[in-house]
Write a structure and sequence with these properties.
Elements lengths: L80 H14 L4 H14 L2 H14 L4 H13 L3 H14 L4 H13 L3 H14 L4 H13 L3 H13 L3 H6 L10 H7 L12 H32 L4 E3 L2 E6 L7 H4 L3 H7 L5 E6 L7 H13 L14 E6 L2 E6 L3 H28 L5 H24 L3
């Protein structure tokens, strides 16, 4: 199922967005303090279970015409209903057998709140393509909003049959059973979903509601504790006594941009990408530290370093420096004859925009009021809502992660080459001659690396 995982507030369906350069590589385990005993007053069993949202359109036009629009689903951004509808009407006028176009139009009607028309178009899509599981899934949610629960259950069961691991469909089927008062069936669905994904806090929360309705407070408490430990929004808001304390060290980790300390708030796939970047970053830092040590031994204490930039002192009067700095260099030297001059070696390979994301995320963990999805440009990490909880999600394409890996490996090679060059030519070349040759080789290698990285796009 291609549905996004986010809760709905009561019966209203909401949608989530389908959500560089990287501090400590070790994964730290977070130890939460003991949670207090759960206690509820009477009459708290009327909470409505969480449902999963509709699948978004995934158009695959079957005629050589402009593609059916993929309707935006960014929270807070309105869909231009009339414009998108005109595009779909145009597409259907060319081919009235286009199941994807009917599916997309059904999504638009559902977005607009016109459930009967949404059901009609989803039904047409299914008529044309009996295997379109997203159409069954979305039609089920539209039918449920129309209180046609029996029909909705049939569609969800069909969706589960097509994709047995779809926890979204299983969760929604359980929620319908719950609303129909069929608690045993609801419990069976939630438990089936948790067997597939034990870390889905929405399912934990929903099963807790069934346990509460059955009077089993002990079992409900265990599920709510687990959901709270995963920072599940509804659990934190409705049962604040269960909300875990955010580890104190995370605030400083966010300020210091130590991404590695947030690994437990990422998916396994994102964790792996972050770890690989951290390994590359550590190698770059180690190579640069070795270069600084060697450069000071060979060129003297006038070598300066600020973060990952090394300043090599030069005279700069040799006309060959023009090949490095450009034709304006001689005039700059003439105008400032006594000014110290340097050739700079810079190896910036660190997290940048991600530091801001970490600070936002840490604030979100402390207070749900600060939680908001992000789309910060150039950031490898973004804040996303998944199954009612917030996580640090992957913000880059596989190609961009590959570029980062190649860039890191290339930086290590170049830095090691500079260090080796200085060691091999110590005493063989005058210092200025050695600086010139080093600068030329460094620049050429850096340009080659840049071209190699760009070629990966």
């Amino acid at each position: 199922m291609t549905a996004r995982e986010c809760p709905v507030d009561k019966a209203e369906i909401t949608r989530c967005r389908t959500a560089w350069l990287p501090a400590a590589a070790a994964l730290l385990l977070f130890f939460f303090p003991l949670l207090p005993q759960v206690s509820w007053g009477q009459g708290k069993t009327d909470r409505i279970p969480i449902q999963k949202p509709s699948a978004q359109p995934a158009p695959k036009p079957q005629v050589p015409a402009p593609p059916a629009p993929q309707v935006p689903s960014v929270p807070g951004v309105s869909v231009d209903f009339e414009l998108e509808m005109k595009k779909l009407e145009s597409l259907l006028s060319l081919n009235d057998k286009n199941a994807e176009a009917y599916y997309n139009r059904g999504w638009l009607y559902e977005y607009k709140g016109d459930m009967p028309r949404a059901v009609q178009d989803y039904s047409k899509a299914i008529e044309l393509d009996k295997k379109m599981k997203d159409a069954y899934y979305n039609r089920a949610l539209a039918l449920a909003r129309m209180k046609k629960f029996e029909e909705a259950l049939k569609d969800l069961s069909e969706a589960v049959k097509m994709e047995p691991a779809s926890t979204d469909a299983i969760c929604n089927r359980g929620s319908i059973h719950f609303q129909m008062g069929k608690l045993d069936l609801a419990l069976a669905d939630y438990e089936a979903g948790l067997k597939i994904n034990p870390n889905d806090p929405d399912l934990r929360y929903n099963r807790a509601l069934v346990f509460l309705a059955q009077g089993n407070k002990a079992a409900a408490g265990e599920d709510l504790k687990r959901a709270a430990q995963m920072f599940h929004d509804k659990t934190r808001k409705e049962f604040p006594e269960l909300a875990p304390q955010v580890p104190a060290h995370l605030k400083k980790a966010a300020l210091d941009c130590r991404v590695g300390e947030f690994l437990s708030h990422m998916s396994q796939e994102t964790q792996q990408k972050v770890r690989l970047f951290e390994e590359s970053r550590a190698k770059v830092d180690k190579a640069f530290e070795d270069l600084e040590k060697n450069a000071r031994q060979i060129l003297g204490d006038k070598v300066q370093r600020q973060k990952n930039t090394l300043a090599i002192p030069i005279e700069g009067t040799d006309p060959r420096w023009t090949e490095i700095f450009g034709p304006q260099w001689p005039e700059m030297v003439r105008q400032n004859p006594k000014e110290p001059r340097f050739f700079y070696l810079a190896q910036e390979f660190n997290w940048k925009e991600e530091c801001r994301i970490l600070q936002r995320f840490q604030a979100c963990l402390e207070n749900p009021a600060y939680c908001q999805e992000t789309a910060l440009p150039n950031s490898a990490l973004q804040m996303r809502r998944s199954s009612g909880s917030w996580e640090l999600a992957d913000g880059k394409t596989p190609q961009e992660w590959k570029q980062a890996q190649v860039l890191g490996e290339g930086m290590v090679e170049i830095t090691q080459w500079v260090s080796k060059f200085l060691a091999e030519n110590k005493g063989k070349l005058a210092q200025e001659e050695m600086a010139l040759a080093m600068a030329k080789g460094y620049t050429e290698r850096l340009m080659n690396l840049t071209s190699k990285v760009k070629a990966l796009k």
